[in-house]
Structure formats: C-alpha cells, structure tokens
C-alpha cells in the first residue's frame, strides 16, 4: 500500500523534472524510511512504560528520602534530591563493567554476542525487579513509621536513607542495559538516512515517559488514598506493586514484539542471536 506513494501519475512531475506536489509524490527512499519506522514502532512503544516506572521511582524516592534519616555520620546529611546520584553512579559503573567484562565473557562462553533486543529485554526484567524491591523497602519504612507512631504526623522515620540505595543501584543497572541496547538496535536496523535518529528515539521515550509519570501520579492521587500529603500515612508500596504487575505485562508485550520482529539489517543479524530468543 505504501509503495503507491512512489508511483508517478500524470501531473506529479513538472516539465523541468521537479516534483509538482511533494506531499503527494514520495521518493522510494522516503517510502522505505517510513516502512522502517513502522516496523520498529511496536518495540519502541514498549519502552514508554519502562520509562514511566523509572520516572515514578525517581520522584517517589525523593519523597521517601525527605521522610527518612539522611544523616551519614555525625556531621553530614545527604540532600534529598541528591539521592538519585546513586542511580547515575550505578549506570556509569555498570556500563563500563558490561563493555569491558560481561559482554566479552558472554561472547566467549556462548560464541555469540548479546543482541540489542536481549539487552533491552534484560532492562525490562530489571525494571520490574526494581519496582518489587522498592515496594518491599517502602513496606518496611511504613512499618517503622507506624511502630513509632509517626504515621499521624510528618516526622522523620528512624530509618536510614541508605535503604534506598539498592533500588537506585538496580535502576542504574537497568538503564545500562536498556538505553544503550535501544540505541544499538535503532542504529543497526534503521536505514542509512535514519541512523542519526537513533538517539532522538530515546529522547522522545524519556520526554513522553515523564509526562506519563505526571499523569499516572495524578490519577493515583485522585482515585486512591495511596499518595496523601503525608507520605507516612500513604501506601506508596501499593503503587510500586501495581507497577510490578504492569511491568510484567509490558515485558510480555515486548517479548511478543521481539519474537515477531524480522531483522531488516541481515548483516547485523548474522552477528547476533535471533530475536525469538527473547
């Protein structure tokens, strides 16, 4: 059907050879570019939920930090907003470890490279795991708050903010798998004229995901009492558990899309596993 856009009809070309109506007549290259985008859209769309979970987790971690003991030693207190730096450090550290050790070891043991689709899939799994860990930590925090009768006020819960570090570290590991895998996949599969859009696709995911994060938090606040003004009286852990379920369903959607996807860059596919291995 899309090929019809490249078929010339009477009046489409001027006598000097220029296109009379550029929006009516497309080049073969433009048609192929559009086909390439359409093929990738299902896989691309699966990343919106993953980005949303990261956005929710980042926002809520700051609120949790504000209600926890942020002292490290007698003279230093971690700023609540700075708690997210643990995620960034984790991403930077594990990107290096993966490139220098894990991926070469995987190739040595299996005689195959870890494909971009597999890296993205691992990122999806870790994202759901992050939500589970976050839910467990928040459940413990709420129990401590209740046992100290702090669920009726906005007092600081006597629980170290460092309890949030494991989940933030897992976020960093998830991002180290997912986002570089996305860039590698798009760069491998896009036609030459679209390769410079690989990083732009990630930017769109991040931008849309943060809007979805805002919308999701708004819906939760309007329809439940899980996110009141006083986080000690809420049920943030329930929000995380809902995201775990959503993450599992989204991973199933991703696996289905990856299994059905047919590589366009056959040369690149020869050096990687089949997408059905997801």
Automatic annotation (TrEMBL):
Q: Please report the record's description of how this protein sits within the membrane.
A: Multi-pass membrane protein
Q: Which GO terms describe its cellular component?
A: membrane
Give the keywords, sorted: Membrane, Transmembrane, Transmembrane helix
SUPFAM superfamilies, A to Z:
MFS general substrate transporter
Keyword Transmembrane helix assigned: yes
Which residues are listed as membrane-spanning? 43-66, 78-98, 118-137, 157-177, 197-219, 239-261
Tell me yes or no: is Membrane among this UniProt entry's keywords.
yes
InterPro entries to which the protein is assigned, alphabetical: MFS_trans_sf (IPR036259), POT_fam (IPR000109)
Tell me where on the tree of life, at the top rank, the source sits.
Eukaryota
Q: Which GO terms describe its molecular function?
A: transmembrane transporter activity
Q: Where in the cell is it found?
A: Membrane
**Which family, according to UniProt?**
Belongs to the major facilitator superfamily. Phosphate:H(+) symporter (TC 2.A.1.9) family.
Q: What is this protein called in UniProt?
A: Protein NRT1/ PTR FAMILY 2.7-like
The organism's lineage is:
Eukaryota, Viridiplantae, Streptophyta, Embryophyta, Tracheophyta
């Amino acid at each position: 059907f899309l090929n019809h856009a490249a078929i010339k009809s009477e009046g489409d070309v001027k006598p000097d050879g220029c296109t009379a109506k550029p929006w009516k007549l497309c080049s073969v290259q433009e048609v192929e570019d559009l086909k390439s985008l359409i093929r990738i859209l299902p896989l691309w769309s699966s990343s919106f939920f993953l980005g949303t979970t990261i956005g929710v987790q980042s926002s809520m971690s700051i609120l949790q930090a504000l209600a926890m003991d942020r002292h490290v030693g007698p003279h230093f207190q971690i700023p609540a907003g700075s708690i997210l730096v643990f995620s960034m450090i984790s991403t930077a550290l594990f990107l290096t470890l993966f490139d220098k050790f894990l991926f070469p070891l995987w190739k040595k043991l299996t005689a195959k490279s870890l494909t971009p689709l597999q890296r993205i899939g691992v990122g999806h799994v870790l994202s759901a795991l992050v939500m589970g860990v976050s839910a467990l930590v928040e459940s413990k925090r709420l129990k401590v708050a209740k046992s100290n009768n702090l669920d009726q006020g906005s007092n600081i819960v006597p629980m170290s903010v460092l309890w949030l570090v494991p989940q933030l570290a897992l976020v960093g590991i998830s991002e180290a798998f997912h986002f570089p895998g996305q860039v590698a996949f798009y760069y491998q599969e896009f036609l030459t004229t679209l390769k410079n859009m690989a990083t732009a696709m990630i930017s769109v995911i991040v931008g849309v995901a943060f809007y979805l994060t805002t919308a999701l938090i708004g819906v939760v606040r309007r329809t439940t009492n899980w996110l009141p003004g006083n986080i000690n009286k809420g049920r943030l852990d329930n929000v995380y558990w809902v995201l775990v379920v959503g993450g599992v369903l989204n991973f199933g959607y991703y696996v289905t899309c990856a299994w059905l996807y047919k590589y366009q860059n056959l040369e690149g596919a020869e050096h990687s596993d089949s997408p059905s291995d997801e």
